[in-house]
Amino acid sequence: MYEGVIQDLIDELGRLPGVGPKSAQRIAFHLLQADPVDVRRLADVLVEVKARVKFCTTCFNVSEDDQCRICRDPRRDPTVLCVVEEYKDVVAIERTREFKGRYHVLGGAISPIDGIGPDQLRIRELLTRLADGTITEVILATDPNLEGEATATYLTRMLREFGLRITRLASGLPVGGDLEYADEVTLGRAFAGRRSADD
Ligand SMILES: [Zn+2]
């Protein structure tokens, strides 16, 4: 244990994902020795990112405006919607350059152990988007793990009544992992080879 504010810093850093107690201590001491100007810049960007970055009111991707860049882009196909868990998945899919439609970010996956059910995800908002019939295909691009599969199965059932084409990414993605960890080529292939979710 350290004194006062140093321990506060270590505690705060230790609450970040993937930062264990040792790393938190290492980062804290790095900051203590760093140039005040560099530390100030880090502090400013932390405050600024919370103040400026919002979620797109349509797809819930991160955005600095009410609508994100992808939703505003008239060249993106409005009839195909790709449903993902997190906005980092949008980044991963965009990198493949395989997809020209729009997105819907659920904000997670169904996980009873973590107390996350359908009501905690942006499923109601998804159903609202489908109501006017513009969207004719929904690609379920949830993570290839237990929670992602459960979410996709749930959505397939929910969406059946809309009479859409519902597809899943082709197999070949590393099972048990996150979509974002798949390399571009594999993810691109999984997109191109997507299959009906009703099979
Ligand atoms: Zn958007």
TrEMBL record:
Zn finger residue spans: C4-type: 56-71
Membrane spanning residue stretches: none
Any GO BP annotation: DNA repair
MF GO annotations: DNA binding; zinc ion binding
Keywords recorded for this protein, A-Z: DNA damage, DNA recombination, DNA repair, Metal-binding, Zinc, Zinc-finger
Chain ranges of the Toprim domain: 79-174
Family: Belongs to the RecR family.
Function summary: May play a role in DNA repair. It seems to be involved in an RecBC-independent recombinational process of DNA repair. It may act with RecF and RecO.
Protein name: Recombination protein RecR
UniProt organism field: Nocardioides agariphilus
